[in-house]
Amino acid sequence: MLVFDCSDEGQRAAGLDAAADAVRRGRLVVLPTDTLYGLGADAFDRDAVAGLLAAKGRGRDMPVPVLVGSWRTLDGLAEQVTGQIRDLMRAFWPGGLTLVINHAPSLRWDLGDARGTVAVRMPLHPVALELLARTGPMAVSSANISGRPAATDAQDAMMQLGGAAEVYLDGGPTPVGTASTILDCTGPVPVVVREGAVGLAALRSVLPLVQEPARR
Description:
Number of strands: 10
Order of helices and strands: EHEEHEHHEEHEHEEEH
CATH architecture: Alpha-Beta Complex
Helix content: 25-40%
Keywords: ATP-binding, Cytoplasm, Nucleotide-binding, Nucleotidyltransferase, Transferase, tRNA processing
Pfam families: Sua5_yciO_yrdC
GO molecular function, one term: tRNA binding
Radius of gyration: 16 Å
Subcellular location: Cytoplasm
Structural class: alpha/beta
Largest sheet: 10 strands, mixed
EC number: 2.7.7.87
């Protein structure tokens, strides 16, 4: 297990090299994002994604989201990038909004029982974006054991995950500390799946017809 303090320029550079190499070899890494710390793997490596789910104690019924490093990346992942999706990207990416979209049928990945969809976000964190620029899309879930509080700093992630991750990039406490908002954009009217870092009022300022999550 390698830990790098990303507040130090030399360690940050070495940590990004080590993390990118680990991802290429199918290993897991922990990285900071603007919302929470994430446990990440190559999105197109089925074994690595399965290892991520196992490390968290999480089932395939909860598919792993994907982080991207640029808007352009979504064009290669989505079946269709609608005008609504582009409006949301312009308003909230990079940032705390995860978009659930229908992924391109040609993609041969296995993120869990996603039924042809994928949850995608572009994070607002320089370390995460630098890593994604090197690796391409990463499958990233919150860096915690399923059912336990999500990690907002590297130390908490290490306490929960230990040697399950080969590399830890310590970017200090996360600036938001709240999970992203998840918005289902697979239908004609976007629906909030999980309320989080981006509020309903902000979403409706861009798309007035956004629906609230169903109350149980």
